[in-house]
Amino acid sequence: MDFEEMMKELEEIVNRLENEDLSLEESIELFQRGVELYKKCREILQKKQLKIIDVLKELEGDEDDTGRNQENES
């Protein structure tokens, strides 16, 4: 299951919990599933955030090298 599918299911769970008349047991089961999905989504987002940070650091390194190279050519 990918991130978008998990988010869609999580939204459906929230809607059911808010709008349906569920038994306590059903509510607890849905809540537990929602927590599982939340944790998985958060983990995916944290990994993507680290990847973005790495890309930005790499970009900064490239810009530093370009700046140094231009100074040396002058």
Layout of secondary structure:
Elements: H1 3-19, H2 24-73
Helix pairs in contact: 1-2
Series of H and E elements:
HH
- Helix coverage percent of residues? over 70%
Low-pLDDT sequence parts: none
Strand content: under 5%
How is the main sheet built? Answer: none
What overall form do the CA principal axes indicate?
A: rod-shaped
Number of strands: 0
Count of helical stretches: 2
Please tell me how large the radius of gyration is: 22 Å
> What do the pLDDT scores average to?
90
Alpha carbon gap, first and last residue: 54 Å
The chain-level structural class is mainly alpha
Could you characterize what this model shows?
The chain has 74 residues and is mostly helical. α1 runs antiparallel to α2. The protein has helices at 3-19, 24-73.
Task: Give a nutshell description of this structure.
By secondary structure, the protein is an all-alpha fold. The protein has helices at residues 3-19, 24-73. It is built from 2 helices and no strands.
